[in-house]
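Database export, one record per block. Field names are fixed; values are copied verbatim from the stored entry.
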Amino acid sequence: MRVVGIKLIPLIISSALIYVVGALIYGALFSAQWMALSGYTAETLAPERWRMALSPIMPIMISLGVGILMQGRGVGDWRSGLGFGLIIGLFFLVGGRLYNFAYGNEPVGLLVLDSVHLLANGGIAGLVLGGLKAAD
């Protein structure tokens, strides 16, 4: 089975890994730092927790986007997939993330934390989708 030409199982694996890495970064490893950099406390974050329900959508969108672009470029192994994903991560995901920093009022540490996460997202998607030949 395929979703917009991308094999479903590699898409699910890629999305799940991106989700797990995000949970590790923002939950297990750097939760306190993220909250401090974002200006949250446990009390101020509580009413915003409903937004967490949206979190599965982002890895699926990233995996699909990387897969579609890989398909159009003929990327079909883990090495080229990883490189391609990192390029997408840097120039599109991190590049888009820079708008919040440039036009907002946030600390550079938050930009760095989010950028590492987004770069990892692109790399994971490219690595998994390329390695599992999801676009073939």
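Remark 1: The longest helix spans residues 78-103.
Remark 2: The first strand starts at residue 2 and ends at 3.
End of record.
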